[in-house]
Amino acid sequence: MSIVTNFPLSEKSVEEFVRLLLPEGMGKDIKGEVSYSQNKIKITVEIDGKTGVLEEENLENIVEDQGVIMLKGALLKAYKKNYPWGSLIGVRPTKMTRRFLQMGFTKERVERILSNMYLATKEKIDLLMKVIETEEKLLNKEATNMYIGIPFCPSKCRYCSFASYEIGSALGRFYPKFVETLLEEIKLVGELSKAKNFKYESLYIGGGTPSTLTLEDTERILEAIHENIDLSNLKEFTFEAGREDAITREKLEILKKYGVDRVSLNPQTFKEQTLKELNRTFNREHFDEIYRDIKELGFILNMDIILGLPGESVEDILNTLNELRKYNMENLTVHSLAKKKGSTLYRENFEESEVERVLVEGEIDKLVRDKGMEAYYMYRQKNSLDWGENVGYSIPGFESRFNIEMIEENQQTMGLGGGAISKSIHKETEFIDQIERLVNPKDPALYIAEMRSRHDKKIEFFS
């Protein structure tokens, strides 16, 4: 593939776009030409004997690489592709859209740009606007959030690319030392947080599967958090229990004792054969028992499902949505399966299951409406289904601030444990933030060996 244009661009970005959304254009030469008239930009693209044209107002002083964005849209037009998200393959479309609104653009002008330049459909634009409306009520740039990563799981799901290692694998032998190192890191971060007067608004313990921790270690870690971290400003405390095969009522009671108010219990699908083939054990009877315990103890509950799992038919997805009606959860997160490079499925080069978008989205809309939920955060993944996104729904008043702040990258993050990412956010311009990241090692052995030196970097990082 050769790409010839009269404006600068990243060929790699265009090639990746073609690979994902225009596979029939792989290896084809591309010619793109930009012309200007008054306050307009027009781009004409030729590929494989086809022509695509796109015209939009000149936003080059606001939108970085507008020519590249429009080139991608013109390629879709050349091939007569009508994707719901158009050329928007970025992870955080809400963040981009919020920036336009912060700059003083009217809602109508932003919607026109999303439709004309990015070729997004009205239903996706409406979703963006609804999410942003909810986010604006909760975003708080002055606070900080904390994430603690527990990189162990009972088993490694084939779709997973997160920092997680089977507790029964060779790396499981580092579990005891990992816990001791994390306890030490919590103490060190407590000292740093006090010196910096960090005000933590949300705390999220994720992974991996945090409930893989033993009952004793769960209590030790929660106790260390209370002893070392000022939680007086905390508005939510989440523990991602996730898998029913790693949680017990006794662990839930420990979580409640130390102020955890949110937990996840994630079926992903209610087709047990699918879960078995994904290397994820599932016992429906125990799942229901844990669900009853969660409700009885008064936790805010989130459930996750994944659309497009290998081997799942539309009927399987509709059955999962129907089964969800049996549970009273405050939050529901609907994921579209993505080919994540760190996952077993990616290495196996699996084929996604066909999903009838209109039918499935219609049933999701009915479900969340019946549950009294509204969309409150969303993000996309580069290798997800072309129409898909990950959407968090919530009963109003039960939104997860942590989820919103992490996706919008509005708040600085203190990351502890395996694979955790700390973020420091500074203003680059009035409307654009400069975000720096400091990553803890995913590998438990490396985390143990480098925690002290990484913490020294963290002190410098947050200064």
SSE blueprint:
Layout: E1 3-5, H1 11-21, E2 30-37, E3 40-47, E4 50-57, H2 66-78, H3 93-102, H4 107-116, H5 122-135, E5 144-150, E6 152-153, E7 165-166, H6 175-196, E8 200-207, H7 215-228, E9 236-242, H8 249-257, E10 262-265, H9 272-277, H10 284-297, E11 300-307, H11 314-324, E12 331-336, H12 344-347, H13 357-370, E13 374-379, E14 390-394, H14 401-408, E15 412-417, E16 421-427, E17 433-439, H15 444-461
Parallel strand pairs: 1-2, 5-8, 5-15, 6-7, 8-9, 9-10, 10-11, 11-12
Antiparallel strand pairs: 2-3, 3-4, 12-14, 13-14, 16-17
Helix pairs in contact: 1-2, 3-5, 6-7, 6-15, 7-8, 8-10, 11-13
Structure description:
With 463 residues, the protein is α/β, with parallel strands linked by helices. The protein is built from 15 helices and 17 strands. Strands 13-14-12-11-10-9-8-5-15 form a nine-stranded mixed sheet, with helices on both faces. A four-stranded mixed sheet has the order 1-2-3-4, with helices on one face. It has a two-stranded parallel ribbon with strand order 6-7. Strand 16 (421-427) and strand 17 form a beta hairpin.
Task: State the main characteristics.
463 residues, alpha/beta, 4-stranded mixed sheet, globular
Q: Which structural class do you get from the secondary structure elements?
A: alpha/beta
Strand content: 15-25%
Stretches where pLDDT is under 50 for at least 5 consecutive residues are none
* Helical percentage: 25-40%
Which quaternary structure do these chains form? single chain
Major sheet size, sense and barrel closure: 9 strands, mixed
Shape, principal axes of CA atoms: globular
Number of discrete helical segments:
15
Separation of the first and last Cα atoms:
46 Å
The neighbouring-strand order within the major sheet is: 13-14-12-11-10-9-8-5-15
What is the C-alpha radius of gyration, as a whole number of Å? Answer: 23 Å
